[in-house]
Amino acid sequence: MISQTAEYALRAMVHLADQGEACTTAQIAKATQIPSGYLAKVLRNLARASLVQSQRGLHGGFALERAAAEISLLDVVNAVDPVKRILTCPLNLPCHGPQLCPLHQRLDDAICQVEDSFRSTNLAELLEVPQHRKPLCQLPAPGEQ
C-alpha cells in the first residue's frame, strides 16, 4: 500500500514525536530498525518538507519542526513518496476520454480513502495509546516481565 521509504519516514517521525527531543540518526536507526544510510536520505527529505529540523552540536540531531498534532501522516508520506492518484486512463485509451473506466475509478476511490485517512490522522494521535501499544514499543522478551 505504501512504499518502504514512506514506512521508514513514518517510523522515524513517530519515534521523534514520542521522544520529544532531538535524536541522532544512529539513535533513530536503532529504535526504528531502519538502515542508517537509508534513514539519512529519508531525514533529508523530511527536512526539505519542513517536517524535521536538524540541530548541530553536542545535543544535536533531528527533531520535529512543529508539534506532533500539527503533522499528518499524509504530510509525512507526501514528503518522501507522494500518494499517486489516478487522474487519467493509465493505459492511455482514447475511448475512455476524460473519465476513468470502472476498474481505475474504483482503484482511485480506494487511494482517495487512504489519502483521507492519512490526512485526518496526526502523529500525536498515534501515541495516545497505552504504553504497551505505542508504535515501535519494545516489548519485554519472554521471561523478562
CATH topology of the domain at 4-81 and 122-133: Arc Repressor Mutant, subunit A
Contiguous runs where pLDDT drops below 50 for at least 5 residues: 139-145
Q: What gross morphology would you assign?
A: elongated
Fraction of helical residues: 40-55%
What is the CATH domain class of the domain at 4-81 and 122-133?
A: Mainly Alpha
CATH superfamily of the domain at 4-81 and 122-133, by name, is Winged helix-like DNA-binding domain superfamily/Winged helix DNA-binding domain
Word description of this protein:
By secondary structure, this protein is mainly alpha-helical. It has a domain at 4-81 and 122-133: Winged helix-like DNA-binding domain superfamily/Winged helix DNA-binding domain (Arc Repressor Mutant, subunit A). It is 47% helix and 6% strand. It contains six helices and two strands. It has a two-stranded antiparallel sheet with strand order 1-2. Helix 1 crosses helix 3. The protein is elongated, with a radius of gyration of 18 Å. The two termini are 35 Å apart. 24% of the residues are buried. Residues 139-145 have low confidence and may be disordered.
Topology:
Layout: H1 4-19, H2 25-32, H3 36-48, E1 52-55, E2 61-64, H4 73-80, H5 102-119, H6 123-127
Antiparallel strand pairs: 1-2
Helix pairs in contact: 1-2, 1-3, 1-4, 2-3, 4-5
